[in-house]
Amino acid sequence: MDCRICEFKQRQFYCDNCLKTHIHDFRHQTQHYALDRDEHISKAYKALNETMTPSRMSRASLSTCQRRVEELQAGLAKLRKENEKKRDRLRALRETLASRRRTISAAKLQTSTPPLPSREAELISSLSIAIARARSGLVQELVEVFNVVEVGGRPPIGGKAGTKGEWTIGDLILPVPGDIRRYPPDHINAVLTHAIHFLSLLTFYLGIKLPFEVIWTGSKLGVGQPWIGAIKGGESGGWARWYTKHPLHLSSSSPAPQQTVRAQSSPDPSNSLTASIMAADPPPTASQSSFTTALSMLLYDVSYLAYTQTVDVPLSQAGDVLSNLWMVCCSAELGRKSHETFPKIPDPTPPSFPLDFAQLLQATTANPASRPRIKRHKHGAGEGVARERIEEVSREAEEDGWDLVDDDV
Predict the structure, then answer these.
(1) CA pair distance 347, 24, nearest whole angstrom
(2) Which long-range contacts (CB under 8 A, 24 or more apart) does 269-272 make?
(3) Dihedral sign, Cα of residue 303, residue 352, residue 368, residue 389
(4) Residue 342 covered by a domain
(5) Where is the composition biased (Acidic residues) (predicted)?
């Protein structure tokens, strides 16, 4: 109806019958839509239960199977890598075993085969003699180049005891371990560098493999600072476990090493000195102790080199490096045995080598030996090189007004 004031249409008014009719129609439509809704809901539930749920379950099962397969493949790859490593190790063990069998067979064959014909034996002997002579010549040239000599001292005269001089290399004195503290670090480093170069060239010429190996901090041989440590070896001598590298040099600011270190070795009931040694590797922070250990390694190398050339160096004489090297260079058996040529000697160190590294380390650190007297070994007619050196020293002594007296002790 229209408003009497604004003349706009207002709400419509219905009578009771119209309202009942409209409400009835609405309820009828609502019931119809409810039935449609329930039908759609039932169809949706049916589709979910009969179609979607099985497909979802199958996809979930497939995904689970795929993850399981991936885990199995990863485990299989890991097992394959482990099996490959084990195969490589087994192959290496088989090769080692085969090599040892060949070595044993060759040794048995060598012991069981009859002696070579006289002509072949003579040929081998002549070749060995020629190689020994060539090595001896190279060694003598090496001694002359590095100028390894003994200066000072005097022989016994008029009932007075003689004195030993200082051994020098490259005009630098290399003191025994007990006298190192009397020299500045630069002097010790320089003379040790000369001694290391001399020893490396000497072992190269003679074909000898030493128990302790010297390495350099630089990229080339002789460049940088020397460090020393054991190579792979057996239990004989007690040196193989000292594989940690020790500095074979002193810093310019550090004082000379003090004798405060104790070494270790396996106790030997037959040797009271070995049984008293403590079992401990020197701490890496103790630079002085580490240098003393490195110096003992160098002394052990020189003693073993002398042993390979049939020169006897007792424990009390092991500290005089240059004297021992000079005796090696004057040995009548110089260059006859080697690790490289026939007849080959066993790898370092054989049980017949009497010196134990722990004993040498204890003697070097606790009670360093004084300068020992050099023994002059007599080897008969094959003493050509030693006799030449002795005659040269005799001529020099006669020019200086000294009389040489042989020491047969």
Answers:
(1) 117
(2) 271/356, 271/359
(3) negative
(4) yes
(5) 397-409
Token pair in block for residue 127: 């070749």
Q: What is the DSSP string of 312-367?
A: ---GGGTT-HHHHHHHHHT-TTTTSSBSSSSSBPPSS--TT----HHHHHHHHHHS
| Domain contains 190 | yes
Mean pLDDT over each residue of the chain, to the nearest integer: 78
Write phi, then psi, for 227 (nearest 5 degrees): -130, 150
**Total domains present in the chain:** 1
Sequence-ordered alpha helix ranges (H) in 236-317? 272-275, 287-308
CA distance readout (Å), 342 to 64, 335, 339: 70, 11, 8
Q: What is the CATH number of the domain that holds 217?
A: 1.10.418
Tell me if 331 sits within 8 A of 142, measured CB to CB. Answer: no
Predicted TM-score (pTM) of this structure? 0.55
Q: Please tell me the predicted confidence (pLDDT) of residue 111.
A: 60
The terminus-to-terminus CA distance of the chain in angstroms comes to 154
Q: In this predicted model, what pLDDT tens digit does every residue of 169-180 receive, in sequence order?
A: 999 999 988 888
- Identify which of 288, 297, 266 has the alpha carbon closest to the alpha carbon of residue 279: 266
Q: How far, in whole angstroms, is CA 209 from its chain's centroid?
A: 15
Instruction: State the residue range of the domain holding 298.
Output: 147-153+164-250+289-365
Q: What are the phi and psi torsion angles at 228 (to 5°)?
A: -140, 145
Does the residue 184 lie in any domain? yes
Q: Indicate the SS3 state at residue 154.
A: strand
Integer Cα distance of 321 and 406 in angstroms:
22
- Please answer whether residues 1 and 13 qualify as being in contact, where contact means their C-beta atoms are separated by less than 8 angstroms: yes
Q: Is 361 domain-assigned?
A: yes
Q: Read off the tokens for 218.
A: 């630089």
